[in-house]
Amino acid sequence: MEDTDPLPLSALQHYLFCPRQCALIHVERQWAENRLTAEGRVLHERVDLGGKSTPRGVRTVRSMPLRCHRLGIGGVADVVELRGPGRQPYPVEYKRGKPKSHRADEVQLCAQALCLEEMFGATIPEGALFYGESRRRTAVAFDPDLRALTERVAEAARAMISSGVTPPPDHAPRKCGQCSLADLCQPKRLSRPPAVADWLLRQLQAE
C-alpha cells in the first residue's frame, strides 16, 4: 500500500499499550512528560544523535529512517546492526525500565523488522530490546504469531487514527499510574459517568 503519510511506528506501541493513549497522542496531538518519559528520553539521547560505528566488526547505524510501503508504516530505528558478510540487519530498540508483561515493545520492534525486510529484501528472524533498568538486551524472535499481531495492530491503529475518534477511558490503576497523559486522560473520573449524566440517561430510558 502506498501512503504519503505513514503511520508512525511508535503508534503501534501506543495502541497496544492503550488505544486511548494512542489517540490522545496521534489524533489529538497531546503530550505530557513525567519521570518515566524523561528517563526514556535521556536513554535515547545517544542513539538519537545518529552516526555510524563499527565495534567488533559489526556496522552499527543509529537513527536509521525506516519505511514499509506494504503496511503504510514508517519511523526511525534506534539502532540497526549490519552483521556478517551479507550485512544482515538486526534492529535494536532502546527502552527504559524492564521487560513488560504485554507485547507492545515487541510489536514496535517487529514493525521495524518488517520495514527493514522490505528495504533490504531480506528475511530478518530476530532483533533485540535493550532495557535501561537491567542494562541488558532481550532477544525477540519475529515468529509468525508476532508478525501477525504486528500487522493486526497496524491495521487497527490506522483505522482508529483515520476515524479521528478518541476511545473512552478504561481505568486500569497500574497501567494508568505509569502513563504521563493520566492528567489529560482522566481515566478514573471519565470512566464513571457524572451523576447528571446518569440522571439524563435514566430519563431518556424512561421515555
Automatic annotation (TrEMBL):
Known EC number(s)? 3.1.12.1
Q: Does the keyword Iron apply?
A: yes
How and how many cofactors are bound, per the record note?
Answer: Mg(2+) or Mn(2+) required for ssDNA cleavage activity.
Pfam assignment, any one: Cas_Cas4
Q: Where is the DUF83 domain?
A: 10-186
Read off the CDD domains from this record.
Cas4_I-A_I-B_I-C_I-D_II-B
One BP annotation, GO: defense response to virus
| Major enzyme class | hydrolase
UniProt key word Iron-sulfur: yes
Q: Which cofactor does it need?
A: [4Fe-4S] cluster; Mg(2+); Mn(2+); iron-sulfur cluster
Alphabetized, the UniProt keywords read: Antiviral defense, Exonuclease, Hydrolase, Iron, Iron-sulfur, Manganese, Metal-binding, Nuclease
Q: One MF term in GO for this entry?
A: iron-sulfur cluster binding
Instruction: Please state which protein family the record places this protein in.
Output: Belongs to the CRISPR-associated exonuclease Cas4 family.
Q: What biological function has been recorded for the protein in this entry?
A: CRISPR (clustered regularly interspaced short palindromic repeat) is an adaptive immune system that provides protection against mobile genetic elements (viruses, transposable elements and conjugative plasmids). CRISPR clusters contain sequences complementary to antecedent mobile elements and target invading nucleic acids. CRISPR clusters are transcribed and processed into CRISPR RNA (crRNA).
Q: What is the protein named? A: CRISPR-associated exonuclease Cas4
Species of provenance: Skermanella stibiiresistens SB22
Taxonomic lineage is:
Bacteria, Pseudomonadati, Pseudomonadota, Alphaproteobacteria, Rhodospirillales
